[in-house]
Amino acid sequence: MKLDKNKKLDIKEILKDLENYRPRRKAWHWREGVGKKELHSFEYREVSDGLKNSVPLPAAKYFDNIDPQPDCVITTEIASGRFEDDIRRMRMAAWHGADHMMVIRTAGQSHFDSLLEGTPEGVGGVPITRKQVIFYHIKS
To answer: For residue range 19-31, what is the model confidence (pLDDT) as tens digits?
Structure first.
């Protein structure tokens, strides 16, 4: 299936032969850090090169549309609907190296929309760090 960014996805085409799908990649390809990088009048560390088709955050229009990309951050969204399952999945995500976790408690919540980067536009979710999950595990 050839994707065109200006054309809507064909759902029937996506679901075709789904039972035979096998991923082509064997493992993660981490972003490659570039060390220090200057964008606008800011100096960033632990960043990678910018993405080709990236869309900056809404607040970026006030900063010359900068769009710094982290060197490697794994964000996991957990939304099973059952608190007991969420705890198990949080531990599993922390064990596998997730940097950010979002636990969705209601149907109205959605992705963080960059709240973790400190912008005011973030909505929904509950931020949980690996330290909190490990601490919970030690106490219980």
So the answer is: 777 766 666 566 7
Distance of CA 122 to the CA centre of its chain: 13
- 56 and 94 housed in the same domain: no
Q: Given the DSSP bridges, would you call strands 127-128 and 75-78 parallel, antiparallel or unpaired?
A: unpaired
Total count of residues recorded for the chain: 140
Among 120, 92, 22, CA closest to 128: 92
What is the rounded CA–CA span in Å between residue 117 and residue 47?
13
47 found inside a domain: yes
Model pTM score? 0.39
Tell me: do 80 and 66 sit in the same domain.
Answer: no
Question: Tokens 């060390």, residue?
Answer: 35
Domain tally, the chain: 2
Given the DSSP bridges, would you call strands 75-78 and 100-103 parallel, antiparallel or unpaired? Answer: parallel
Range of 100's domain? 73-140
Spacing of C-alpha 11 from chain mean position: 24
Beta bridge mates, 101: 76, 128
